[in-house]
Known about the structure:
Blueprint: E1 2-8, E2 13-19, E3 24-31, E4 39-45, E5 48-54, H1 59-70, E6 84-89, E7 100-102, H2 105-112, H3 122-135, E8 141-144, H4 155-158, H5 164-170, H6 179-193, E9 199-204, E10 210-215, E11 218-222, H7 245-253, H8 257-266, H9 269-274, H10 280-288, H11 292-316, E12 321-325, H12 326-331, H13 333-339, H14 352-357, E13 363-364, E14 373-376, H15 381-396
Helix pairs in contact: 2-3, 6-15, 10-11
Amino acid sequence: MKVLVANLGSTSFKYSLYDMDGEKLLGKGRVERIGEPLSPCTVQIGDRKQEITVPVPDHAVAVRQCLAQLTDPASGCLKDASEVAAIGFKAVHAADCSGVQFVTPEVLRAMEELNDVMPAHNPPYVRAMRQLAEKLPEIPLVAAFETGFHQTIPDRNRYYGVPWEWAEKYSVVRWGFHGASHRYISMRTAELLGRDDLRIISCHLGGSSSICAVNAGKSVAASMGTSSQTGLFHNNRVGDFDPFMIPYLLKKLGLSLEDFLTLLATKSGLLGLSGVSGDLRDVTEASQNGNKQAERAVQVFIGDIRKYIGASLVELGGADVIVFTGGIGEYQPDIRKGAVRKLETLGIELNEAVNEKAFGSETPIHSPRSRTQIWVIPANEEIIVARQTVAKLSEKK
């Protein structure tokens, strides 16, 4: 069975094609600048990489273009597009809807209901899913929601101190996100260490960041809340923020609520605090060149990570493993070093020499003296979505 896994942006379409008999990655690619006069379309199959530039007006055409490249007689890996059993989406959030769902009008309406809560994610996914359902009805569409992994979070870590009817009627609870990443880290760490009873602190650090406490394969606490703007601050999103400052700042800044929320969702986080960039590499470089504002932003980011690691240690009663993943977690040794600094009395000790050389591959980076193991493990979110898609198709049969 072959499954296409889709990761959508407002003007982009990234994909991976798997043969689930053996979970082999057959090809991957991306279509960018969707809706512009010309869109770069890249596909890589094995060592062969091909890029063409053609008009791609919408996501349905992007999917057809990717299938055309994957079925190219000279360089493709499929004989026919009908070999694709389903498209699985790494979807984010929907009202009163989680886990793995077939994309139906009801699911799309549930996603649309949270457009204001997930402005960067839900609108492009809904548009693309609707286009694909209409124009490619022969291919089943499956949404694997990021919140699904966190359905095991206990009540003590799920609810806010707000009127109960908000949670009951409007699902104002801590949903948690990056579920595919944290699920993969949980499963892969258990495989590497040969144990299924591990207490894991999974640190997904990238353009969007979150920390999850996992006990025996189940999420028990997560840094993100009802929306993906919360928890640690992100590349350009605010993270945790005092809501009582909103009316005060609306008056001071002379902004509408809509403009203010856009500011929190697009001009805040690392970008807003540093004044340099939302890319940690740029901010770190500026910090090293003496930019005090950039240095402060890096230290606040590390402080946020430490805060949630500490909370996870309390929730789990200690940790067997701390795992770093995501673009920052895998490639920024200084951030990893800062995150576990001065935790030796808790049995958490880094091997600094190994840490400095660990980039993007499965690597243990703890000292031999450390009671808690520390690892760098690249997450494979796509294979998780592919597995969930196959399971959903089997359920239907």
